[in-house]
UniProtKB/TrEMBL annotation:
InterPro entries: YdeI_bac, YdhG-like. SUPFAM superfamilies: YdhG-like. It comes from the Bacteria. Residues 19-113 form the YdhG-like domain. Pfam families: DUF1801, OmdA. This is YdhG-like domain-containing protein. Gene3D superfamilies: 3.90.1150.200.
């Protein structure tokens, strides 16, 4: 798919739905949203936050509501494009320009804007990554109090870097060589790749 730089260009690319997309665009832009292009498609924002977008496909076109899960959907027009995967995103799909009721579309758009202003959004799951200490590193840490203390003072990210470094060694000899290399680094409180980060 070619990169799109403007809404006009997007509409031209989908000329079979061009008139309908232009109509939806005029309804959306009659509100206070800002218009931009993201992911090569028209996106509409409020205070820099994505509220909705226009989309055209082979057999249908419509509006994406980024936090559509919060819309009342009194007319039962919204679909979840990927059941059990998509948490917040909802689509309002149309097959032809005749399916568009301007007033209904506008009411959904206004509600989506209001919801955004109220801060209604599903935050992405930021699951805490667990640090799994490989057996070889654990035995070295258990045998050396200073090293153990230094390791526990490292950030979880740096701890994971060291754990992965040992885990990814295939041969036992390589694991031992790596352990010898990282011991002084851990005691100094530096991360495995710190010297590259400051370049």
């Amino acid at each position: 798919m070619k990169k799109i730089y403007s809404v006009e260009e997007y509409i031209e690319e989908h000329e079979n739905f061009g008139e309908a997309l232009t109509l939806l665009r005029s309804i959306i832009t009659s509100t206070e949203v800002g218009e931009t292009v993201k992911w090569s498609a028209p996106v509409y924002t409020v205070n820099g936050k994505n509220v909705l977008g226009l989309g055209a496909f082979k057999n249908h076109f419509g509006i994406w509501f980024f936090n559509g899960v919060f819309l009342k959907d009194q007319h039962n027009l919204l679909v979840n494009a990927q059941e059990n995967k998509t948490k917040a995103l909802r689509q309002m799909r149309f097959k032809s320009i005749d399916d568009i009721d301007k007033n209904i579309v506008l009411s959904y758009v206004k509600e989506a804007i209001e919801n955004q202003k109220l801060g209604k959004e599903i935050k992405p799951d930021r699951k805490k990554k667990e640090t799994v200490i490989p057996v070889e590193l654990k035995s070295v840490l258990d045998a050396n109090t200073e090293l153990n203390l230094a390791f526990n003072n490292l950030s979880p990210y740096k701890q994971r870097e060291y754990c992965e470094y040992i885990q990814t060694a295939k041969r036992e000899a390589t694991k031992q060589t790596r352990l010898e290399k990282i011991t002084p680094m851990i005691i100094q409180g530096v991360g495995l790749h710190d010297k590259y980060k400051n370049c």
